[in-house]
Design a protein that fits this description.
Number of domains: 1
Strand order of the largest sheet: 4-2-6-7
Helix content: under 10%
CATH class: Mainly Beta
CATH architecture: Sandwich
Number of strands: 7
Length: 88
């Protein structure tokens, strides 16, 4: 489980998309159907990642999350993280 903090410093609500990369077949699961942060607001977003055990080369695998504006995917930020799985 990852807890992502999303800060909207704009003067209107923003919709975002979130992706995760780094492991073949990595699946991102969110508890909300869409990511919306009100103007000047902060959203604490729980995110779960699922990976096939066969896709893991080691117990610890580097991954990244990319958050983009839904209406402007070129405006994005990426942050690195680590996926901890079972011992291969």
């Amino acid at each position: 489980m990852y807890n992502l903090k999303i800060i909207n410093k704009r003067d209107h609500a923003q919709r975002y998309t979130l992706t995760a990369r780094g492991i073949d077949g990595l699946e991102l699961r969110l508890d909300v159907p869409e990511i919306v942060v009100p103007e000047g607001g902060v959203l604490s977003l729980p995110a779960r990642l699922l990976a096939r055990e066969s896709a893991l080369a080691a117990r610890s695998s580097p991954i990244s999350f990319t958050l983009a504006l839904a209406d402007d995917p070129d405006t994005a930020v990426t942050t690195d993280a680590v996926f901890l799985g079972p011992q291969p």
